[in-house]
């Protein structure tokens, strides 16, 4: 029975980029729906009547919130402006893109509302499972697909303590894995972390803001090599350096087929 559910799941999840695309388009369409409904409907009425299969009230965790410090907001604004900027030569929008972030991405794949109930319905993305604003992982990832790099603005909260007043090394590793994995996933489809090599250079104070700079080093067949540096927001201080190896795989691998 469980095997059949997983096989059904495979038909819905061809590969991750499509999943990301769906999330992005759902967000875009969801946003316009939201504007439309504000003008014409009350929320409850629309969600009862709409044929749109997703909740228009899904929470994108990468949006600014009250827990963000002024520094977090500043760095966010800086990269967000790059997303909206038009390049002088082409007149097209900039090459940076802010990635949305949900606590159950599976739900937003086509057909995913049902799947998310079938497959481990209580599962939540590790970095997005604490409801208190600012308590744990506050972060936003920006992607530059042309330059094959990502930047993540990260404000670690008080629940991530390791050494007194400072961030746990495992929490930093989690963020490195998340950002390098996101980059590898956008560039190569579904990937699994095979190796993560981290050098911790200086401790990160809880509540401070750091930036993770991640870049593609090379691709060798199904091996994707990515590096990452964690720095202060002005890049004057290096906190952590890492390299990661991801292996591209077919989704069937996760479900035993
Ligand atoms: C919207 C969403 C937002 C959400 C975005 C959030 C993103 C978060 C991303 C988090 C990602 C994770 O945490 S993933 C979870 C943690 N990782 C895991 O659990 C992975 C467990 N390990 C595995 O399943 C497997 O070992 C794999 C898939 C990594 C590799 O298995 P495989 O497919 O059998 O690979 P295999 O053919 O043997 O090897 C292929 C090539 O890679 C090399 N290779 C394999 N493993 C290693 C290794 N550890 N170190 C060096 N090299 C290795 C082999 O030598 C070979 O080289 P050559 O002979 O070809 O030269």
Automatic annotation (TrEMBL):
Taxonomic superkingdom: Eukaryota
Species name: Silurus meridionalis
Any GO molecular function: hydrolase activity
Catalytic function, reaction form: tetradecanoyl-CoA + H2O = tetradecanoate + CoA + H(+); octanoyl-CoA + H2O = octanoate + CoA + H(+); dodecanoyl-CoA + H2O = dodecanoate + CoA + H(+); (9Z)-octadecenoyl-CoA + H2O = (9Z)-octadecenoate + CoA + H(+)
Protein name as it appears in the record: Acyl-coenzyme A thioesterase THEM4
GO BP: apoptotic process; fatty acid metabolic process
Keyword Secreted carried by entry: no
Protein family per UniProt: Belongs to the THEM4/THEM5 thioesterase family.
Localization of this protein: Cell projection, Ruffle membrane; Cytoplasm; Mitochondrion inner membrane; Mitochondrion intermembrane space
């Amino acid at each position: 029975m469980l095997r059949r559910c997983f096989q059904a799941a495979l038909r819905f999840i061809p590969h991750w980029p499509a999943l990301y695309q769906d999330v992005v388009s759902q967000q875009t369409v969801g946003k316009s729906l939201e504007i439309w409904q504000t003008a014409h409907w009350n929320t409850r009425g629309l969600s009862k009547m709409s044929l749109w299969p997703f909740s228009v009230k899904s929470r994108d965790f990468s949006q600014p919130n009250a827990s963000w410090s002024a520094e977090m907001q500043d760095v966010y604004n800086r990269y967000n402006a790059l997303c909206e900027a038009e390049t002088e030569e082409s007149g097209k929008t900039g090459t940076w893109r802010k990635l949305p972030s949900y606590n159950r991405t599976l739900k937003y794949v086509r057909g995913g509302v049902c799947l998310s109930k079938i497959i481990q319905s209580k599962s939540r993305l590790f970095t997005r499972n604490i409801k208190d604003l600012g308590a744990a992982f506050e972060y936003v990832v920006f992607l530059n697909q042309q330059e094959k790099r990502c930047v993540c603005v990260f404000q670690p909260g008080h629940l991530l303590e390791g050494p007194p007043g400072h961030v746990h090394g495992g929490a930093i590793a989690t963020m490195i894995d998340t950002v390098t994995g996101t980059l590898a996933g956008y560039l190569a489809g579904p990937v699994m972390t095979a190796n993560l090599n981290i050098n911790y250079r200086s401790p990160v104070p809880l509540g401070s803001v750091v930036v993770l700079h991640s870049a593609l080093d090379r691709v060798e067949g199904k091996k994707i090599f990515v590096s990452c540096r964690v720095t202060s927001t002005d890049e004057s201080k290096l906190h952590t350096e890492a390299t990661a190896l991801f292996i591209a795989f077919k989704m069937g691998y996760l479900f035993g087929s």
